[in-house]
Amino acid sequence: MIETVVVLLMFVGAEIKEHRIQPSMSECLKGKRLASRSASSQTDFKCIKSKVELETNIDGSQSIKSLILTP
Protein backbone atom coordinates (compact mmCIF):
# COMPACT_ATOMS: atom_id res chain seq x y z
CA MET A 1 0.00 0.00 0.00
CA ILE A 2 1.39 3.43 -0.93
CA GLU A 3 0.65 6.43 1.31
CA THR A 4 2.06 9.89 2.01
CA VAL A 5 3.42 10.09 5.57
CA VAL A 6 5.81 12.14 7.70
CA VAL A 7 9.10 10.28 8.15
CA LEU A 8 12.05 10.85 10.48
CA LEU A 9 15.25 9.82 8.67
CA MET A 10 18.59 9.05 10.32
CA PHE A 11 21.66 9.50 8.12
CA VAL A 12 25.13 8.23 8.96
CA GLY A 13 27.40 9.88 6.46
CA ALA A 14 25.35 10.00 3.25
CA GLU A 15 23.48 6.72 3.85
CA ILE A 16 19.98 6.37 5.35
CA LYS A 17 20.37 3.99 8.29
CA GLU A 18 16.89 4.20 9.81
CA HIS A 19 13.44 5.62 9.06
CA ARG A 20 10.40 5.95 11.29
CA ILE A 21 6.80 6.97 10.61
CA GLN A 22 5.76 9.99 12.68
CA PRO A 23 2.18 11.10 13.46
CA SER A 24 2.79 14.75 12.47
CA MET A 25 5.53 17.13 11.34
CA SER A 26 5.64 18.77 14.79
CA GLU A 27 6.18 15.39 16.48
CA CYS A 28 8.87 14.59 13.92
CA LEU A 29 10.72 17.85 14.57
CA LYS A 30 10.50 17.23 18.33
CA GLY A 31 12.00 13.73 17.85
CA LYS A 32 14.70 15.17 15.57
CA ARG A 33 15.64 17.75 18.19
CA LEU A 34 15.89 15.12 20.95
CA ALA A 35 17.86 12.68 18.79
CA SER A 36 20.28 15.36 17.56
CA ARG A 37 21.25 16.25 21.13
CA SER A 38 22.51 12.75 21.88
CA ALA A 39 23.90 11.74 18.47
CA SER A 40 27.46 11.75 17.20
CA SER A 41 28.71 14.42 14.82
CA GLN A 42 28.52 11.99 11.86
CA THR A 43 24.79 11.39 12.39
CA ASP A 44 22.18 13.69 10.86
CA PHE A 45 18.38 13.65 11.17
CA LYS A 46 15.76 15.00 8.74
CA CYS A 47 11.99 15.16 8.72
CA ILE A 48 10.29 14.77 5.36
CA LYS A 49 6.81 14.26 4.00
CA SER A 50 7.12 11.50 1.42
CA LYS A 51 5.30 8.72 -0.35
CA VAL A 52 6.21 5.33 1.09
CA GLU A 53 5.31 1.72 0.50
CA LEU A 54 3.90 0.33 3.75
CA GLU A 55 3.68 -3.23 4.98
CA THR A 56 1.51 -4.54 7.79
CA ASN A 57 3.28 -6.45 10.57
CA ILE A 58 1.89 -9.49 12.38
CA ASP A 59 0.77 -7.32 15.31
CA GLY A 60 -1.21 -5.03 12.96
CA SER A 61 1.21 -2.11 13.06
CA GLN A 62 2.57 -0.62 9.85
CA SER A 63 6.20 -0.16 8.89
CA ILE A 64 7.98 1.31 5.91
CA LYS A 65 8.91 -1.22 3.25
CA SER A 66 10.48 1.37 0.92
CA LEU A 67 10.75 5.13 0.51
CA ILE A 68 9.58 6.67 -2.75
CA LEU A 69 11.80 9.74 -3.06
CA THR A 70 11.02 12.20 -5.83
CA PRO A 71 12.97 15.39 -6.57
Topology:
Elements (H helix, E strand, L loop, with lengths): L1 E11 L2 E8 L2 H14 L4 E14 L5 E7 L3
Antiparallel strand pairs: 1-2, 1-3, 3-4
How would you portray this structure in words?
This protein is an alpha+beta fold and 71 residues long. Helices cover 20% and strands 56% of the residues. The protein contains one helix and four strands. Strands 2-1-3-4 form a four-stranded antiparallel β-sheet, covered by helices on one side. It starts with a strand and ends with a strand. The model has no long low-confidence stretch (mean pLDDT 92).
List keywords for this structure.
single chain, alpha+beta, 4 strands, 20% helix
Task: Output the helix-strand order.
Answer: EEHEE
Strand order of the largest sheet: 2-1-3-4
Span between termini: 21 Å
General form: globular
The level of helicity is 10-25%
Rg from alpha-carbon coordinates: 13 Å
Note the beta-strand portion.
over 45%
Largest pleated sheet: 4 strands, antiparallel
Please, what is the average pLDDT?
92
Q: What class would the helix/strand composition place it in? A: alpha+beta
Low-confidence stretches: none
DSSP, total strands = 4
Count of runs of 4 or more consecutive helical residues: 1
